[in-house]
């Protein structure tokens, strides 16, 4: 496992624009990354400028591995109504996070690290378990480097979970 250093921070509410999809867990690498360029084009057409890094926000996971995920960018608060773009926000609160270095294929290690860190340090993640799966208050990967411009070994991703 990577050499992670967990950080707890107090974050303000952060509005965003995103595209939401329900996909099988194993299809995330094929289905979600292409949404980024689609969203950027939609935002440009609506004259909305991103003001931060691209992220994937994990909304829920059913017991059969179906996940609801948003690919998005932070934006200024927007009053626009759209049938395609989801406007939401990361809630204000305390977040537990780590920086993952390298290949996105290994990001699951950062998720597992944070889950274990929370458990061993008596921190409660903001999540609701239901009969059909789990819903997260906020569980996200924030992509701090541009993969097309950065060698894979230098990729940096913040993995962040909202605490209760």
UniProtKB/TrEMBL annotation:
InterPro entries: AraC_E-bd, GyrI-like, Reg_factor_effector_dom_sf. It comes from the Bacteria. It comes from Lacihabitans lacunae. This is GyrI-like domain-containing protein. Residues 4-164 form the AraC effector-binding domain. Pfam families: GyrI-like.
């Amino acid at each position: 496992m990577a050499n992670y250093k967990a950080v707890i921070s107090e974050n303000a509410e952060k509005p965003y624009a995103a595209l939401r999809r329900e996909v099988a867990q194993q299809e995330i690498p094929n289905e979600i990354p292409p949404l980024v360029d689609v969203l950027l084009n939609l935002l440009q057409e609506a004259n909305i400028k991103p003001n931060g890094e691209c992220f994937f926000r994990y909304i829920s996971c059913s017991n059969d591995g179906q996940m609801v995920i948003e690919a998005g960018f932070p934006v200024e608060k927007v009053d626009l109504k759209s049938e395609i773009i989801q406007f939401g926000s990361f809630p204000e609160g305390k977040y537990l996070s780590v920086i993952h270095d390298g290949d996105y294929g290994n990001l699951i290690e950062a998720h597992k690290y944070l889950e274990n860190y929370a458990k061993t340090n008596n921190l409660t993640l903001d999540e609701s378990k239901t009969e059909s799966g789990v819903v997260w208050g906020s569980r996200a990967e924030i992509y701090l480097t541009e993969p097309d411009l950065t060698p894979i070994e230098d990729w940096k991703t913040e993995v962040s979970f909202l605490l209760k």
